[in-house]
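[INFO] parsing input record for GRAM domain-containing protein 1B
[DEBUG] input buffer:
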Amino acid sequence: MSENDDEDDDEEEEEEAEEACCPCSTHRGRELLNTVCPLSVDQLFLWLFTDSEFFRQLHHVRKSKNIILSDWKIDRTTKAKLRQISYSVAVNHALAPKSCEVVEKQV
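[DEBUG] output buffer:
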């Protein structure tokens, strides 16, 4: 291993450690999470968009049921990767049903 390899690794770590900044002045909805995590974008993608242990634990904590994940596919017209996820979530409101069916289309 050469000194240049060490320098390249240091530069990659510095790039990964940079905090992301959002150019938006406001966001709709409610804030669910506001924290800095020492993760690469690739690791975060794997956690959120694959059938990972983190993904399963997240839905377990949210009390999601009947989770069905489709495989990632390429859209013929747009060439974008997409998949569909469906699940049931508990609804905690007196005037609502006990659960709600959710279908996510991820692109």
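[INFO] The two ends are 40 Å apart (CA to CA).
[INFO] shutting down worker
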